[in-house]
Each structure stands twice: as C-alpha cells, then as structure tokens.
Amino acid sequence: MRFVYQAFVLAFALLISPLAKADTLLLFDLSGAGSTYTFSLDSTPPIASAAAGFSFTLNGIDITIDDLFGVTSGLTFFNGARGGGVSLLNIPGGALDLTGPQLYSGSETTPSFGPGGPISLTDSAGAPFSLTITAAPTPEPGTLTLLATGAIATLGSIRRRRRTVAHT
After folding, report:
1. Given 26, 108, 116, 137, which is the most exposed site by the fewest CB atoms within 10 A?
2. Which residues are CB-neighbours of 67 under 8 A, at least 6 positions away?
C-alpha cells in the first residue's frame, strides 16, 4: 500500500510540474531631460482600454522619478504607425509624451513586452530620451507555497522517524 501511495504522489507531481511558470517582470528605465523614470510591468499586462491600430492604456502604474519619490500614473503605448512611443499621463509637470518605435508586440488588445534597449525616444520639445527594458524573473507565490509545503512535510517525516527509532 505504501508503494502505491508513493507512486501516486510521484505521478501527480510529474503531471502538474509543467503547469508551474514564473511570470516575467520587466523593469523599464527611462532617462532624459535631466530625469529618470522607473517602473515595472508584467510581460503581458492587463490593459485598461485599447483603440485597435492606435494605442492602449494601462492604469495605476507606480513610477519612481529620479529615485526620490513615486507617483501613480497611467501609461499609453502607441502603435508604430501612429508615431510609436509612450505617454506618462499623470506625472508632476504634466504628461510626458515620447515618440519613437513601437515598444510592444502583438495587438493593442493583447500586447506583450520583452527586454531590449537602449531604445531612442524623443519628447515633444525634441529632447532625447533613452529607454531600457530588462527582465527579472520572479517566482509565483504558488511555487513558493509548494516549496514550503514540501519542506514542512520533509521535516515532519524526519521528526516522525526519529521518534519511532527512539521508541524501539
């Protein structure tokens, strides 16, 4: 019976292991005109609104400005046929509109980002900006939960075996 149980646990672990996936968190570092703007997005972020063939908007993005303070802003990414680039909507001093290449792949309703850069962008006054996107893989909470559960089970098994040996 014990062998059947161990075989079942092993088979179950092998079946669900392909389902585990670490999401990729992308770090955006935008610098120019004497300031640096830093924010992070998932590689496939949930969009707030989209205009097919034109742009899509993300809301509630935390942006750090010059490593001093943060603001929560919306971001609009534009299609390459519409000038490309990105707009930071709610930052001190008004919106920052940058043009350049299209920064995402896929459609406006299902965009995805990947690492790259430096990417040259230009603001409305012609000032140059540089954008670098880097990837930082992060473990999912479910993966950490499975690891902790396995560690606790292993420790419990060792403890039980020591008790059994001590009583014999």
Report:
1. 137
2. 36, 38
